[in-house]
Amino acid sequence: MRKIALLALLGFTVAQCTYSPKIESLFTQMESTKIGIDFQNNLSYDKDFNVFNYRNFYNGGGVAVGDINNDGYVDLYFTANQTSNKLYLNNGDWTFTDITETSGTSGKQAWSTGAAMADVNGDGWLDIYVANSGDIKGDSRANELFLNNGDNTFTESADAWGVADQGLSTHGVFFDYDRDGDLDLYVLNNSYRAIGSFNLQKSSREIRDPEGGDKLYRNEGGHFTDVSEEAGIMGSEIGFGLGTTVGDVNGDGWLDIYISNDFFEKDYLYINKGDGTFSEELEKHMRHTSFASMGADMADINNDAAPDLFVTDMLPQGVRRLNQTTTFENWDVYQGKLDWGYYHQFNRNMLHLNTADGDFVEIGQLSGVEATDWSWGALIADLDNDGWRDLYISNGIAHDLTDQDYINYISNEEVMRAIVTEEGVNYKELIDLMPTTRIPNYAFKNVAGGYKFVDQAKEWGLSVPSHSNGSVYADLDNDGDLDLVVNNVNQAPFIWRNNAETIHPENHSVQIELRDGEKLAIGAKVYAYAQGSMYYAENVPMKGFQSSVDPRIHLGLGAHQILDSLVVQWSSEEKQTLTDIPADSLYVVRRAAASPAAAPKKITTTLLAMNAAYGGRTETPYSQFNEERLIPQMTTSEGARLAVADINGDGYVDFYQCGSAGQPGQLFFGSDWYGFEQDIDAPFVQHAECEDTDAEFFDYDGDGDLDLYVASGSVQPENGSAALYDRIYTNNGKGRFTYDANALPELPIRTSSIAVSDYDGDGDLDVFVAARAVKGRYGVPASGLFLMNYGDGVLRNERMTTRGFQNIGMISDCEAGDVDGDGDDDIIAVGDWQGVRLWMNDAGQFAERTLEAGFDHSQGLWNTVRLEDLDGDGALDIIAGNLGENCRLEASVEKPMVLFVNDFDNNTYSDPILCSYWGDTLFPRVLRHNMISQLPYLKKENLEYSQYAGKSVFEVFDTTQLERSALLQVQTLRTTCFYNNGNGIFSHATLPIQAQTAPVYAIDALDVDGDGDKDLILGGNLYEVQPEWGRYDASRGTVLLNTGNREWRAATQLQSGLNIDGQVRDITHYQRDGQTYVLFSKVDGLLEEYKLSH
């Protein structure tokens, strides 16, 4: 060993052992008995103790890792539910010695769950804390604290230290929340009460449970004190905690806490206030969470020095198992729980990306990690040393509790009579009937900077089927890569040796052991820099599920063989900087004479800055799902668009914001004093029942001032309702408007968008009117209209031209522009289940040229379209906003999403059947109970879920029915730029992945960064989505910077300055007093105005 300043250097080694399986993949399974590990968490049930009278029966055990004897190798501690916990010494040669009995660490309680290793008393030796649970007669469930005596023996001291908590404990996490230099303890407890005993309408979140509830214990030096209530920690009976994850989410130097709650209660995010108290702020920082949150981990997945969060849930991957084991809440239940305070929760894993100061966007579906079945452990770690952290997920449950055929079977009255007798319920027989399925754990490789992951479990040698629970990563052989240890139920634990040093010799790593004196420095941070790359880690080893990982920080470095610098940020606000650090070594960094840490560098100048807010819009609640149960999302929140112009000639831009049903549109006048001021005398209240969908100022009557056209649409009004009629308000020249009842015919459509231009070149402005929906008939194409302006103050439906726009689709937006350079404006339209469509204008006569223009494979779920010259060649390009890829559905040209529309049961109502591919088979994406509810005749051929679960759409429906159906497709979900190559011929260009995180409903083009090129600002989100799919809310406003050569770069949220919460439906920019401003219009809430910085 050689010393480098304050650094102790130990080169990585290769452990020598007699048992060394052949290396065939990144990981090799080490046979546990051959390396000396004979532990197995065997679980048996009987009629008296089982999953029916103890709901956490199958939650399994945990694993703790740490060097208990300070010999340089980390040791292993396993917890068991019904057998002895086990402690194994690592001999350094891939063998282990069981010292459980001699060390005194087996534990005396009947049912152990979580385990943590931490130096509780600060003597330089790792202690062990065991969480106990179960509902076993005669057992106290008291948690146990085994203090390390320094000689491979331990003394149980939980009661003496005040931490013998007797709740239904899941885990204990040690961290220094008050930064006083010692480790405090958070004990996560699960509720005693049965799930079915709660009245969800009366939340008891603020009432502490006297028998259980989460606890925060402050270390007083030799004893802990329960400070839960005074610190702001909730401990109610609706807390079903399964995961405690600690990290500094907002970068203020104080450790925060994330609590994963199972069942109906929302998760908690406790922000550390730095004064000994916490503030629960989940709803402020996250837009939604998992429904049945379990294990979690917090680490930096995109190398931006902000900790991200991954939380597991129970959503299966694959259509067959999804159909067999899964149900989802309906819209009404979801809305009811929101009213009762349980927040937005959806059944899937969540990957929360930390964008700015602890504000998160959820990208799990975009990343491809949302569905890993009944998942427990979550680990974020660089498994192949390529410099990007990967995901390992342990999953499985010993019996499929949610198998729908099983639930239906035991609900049968005759079956229940056989099981429930005078002697009571035969629980053993009930459980024996449950199916059992083992599936492999998941190992996702980070392939796109934290935005995309690919499951490599099979390729990496990790695809052994199991029922796995707690899991950890640890460098068991000190060779510089992370091995995996997994605690299984009724199966030997997995010990996976990592072979990265052999499989990927091109990749390098460093490991850092941080010590403050003799103690491990829990809570310290590390920043590593190498040739422009940056790597970040926080030292909080208790994570995953009921487990604690290797307390040494591991950083994969990819090809970098040396660190330019290594900065250690100690939790006491001091830092230490080391330079020129060679890779492939373990460094012991001891806190020395550290210098005061500078405040974290914040971006002080952003591209845009919040300037003002105006008005306030409220969308009227309406459930389209009550009429059309099979549609995945509503089309009812399309309004809030803007019409923008100087309508009174004072030199300032004014605007009209479209209203919602029950709230009239709003007119705002621009000024130099107030920015914008609402006109309270505007005449729009008489049409308050209308749902405005689009608006535009233009001089329709040729009198020299700008009038206002307001479109009405939505599926809410009944057919023929006057609330569907478009309207024109005439301008008196001073910005005062009067409704003109004679200006428009009573249009027989539900308008979604309008495009105004002098299409026939006669000097006055005509209007193309598009429609999106036919009430109650999702998927049935709507028609467009062409309103010819004859110059007499009246717009008429030009039937010859309109005929060419019959049944053109579900149009969401349209634009007019001269895309072929012939001097007249053409029409571009986009919509649901269709491609970008182009009608070329030839002297007022239109002909569709969609295929000729290059849009033959552009079918999408398009929301908006914008025409701009983005590359400066003088030709108009197209930017189209799509659903995005942050959803469970996938679409490609080879494997499109499909919608079959037909009246399958001949009841005069159309039935839209959504389908997508899994593998090479096209499956209906409608669960059996939902399908049979809509089409009862299908029950005869699908009496059981197993009969339906694996059927393709061609097996569910007969060929004749499908051949007679309307067939719609989606081939892309990506928001896309189409570049005009001249003469109206277009090519597709890929936009950054940040543009795909949410549906895009609004686009503006302007020079944001002052380099002379037009950049893009995107806005969107969609909340009215079936709970099965979950709402789309990851957009906070996106800035795409034009870097030339038809390439784009996404600004980070910190760089852009945008932080818009809500559903954006329009964006516009304008000048005021020499400054450029950008205005965002939302479905609900205030209009937000940002000021451009350059």
Structural write-up:
The protein is mostly beta strands and 1094 residues long. 8% of the residues lie in helices and 38% in strands. It contains 17 helices and 80 strands. The strands form 21 sheets. Strands 1, 2, 37, 38, 43 and 46 form a six-stranded mixed beta sheet that branches. A five-stranded antiparallel beta sheet has the order 40-39-44-45-47, with no helix packed on it. Strands 61, 62, 63, 64 and 65 form a five-stranded antiparallel beta sheet that branches. β37 (508-516) and β38 form a beta hairpin. The longest helix is centred in the first third of the chain and has 9 residues, at 331-339. The two termini are 55 Å apart.
The helix count comes to 17
Bin the helical content.
under 10%
Count of extended strands: 80
Strand composition percent: 35-45%
- Give the termini distance in whole angstroms: 55 Å
Structural class: mainly beta
Shape: globular
Radius of gyration: 31 Å
Query: Quick one: biggest sheet?
Result: 6 strands, mixed
Overall mean confidence score, pLDDT:
93
Oligomer state of the chains in this structure: single chain
Low-confidence stretches: 1-6
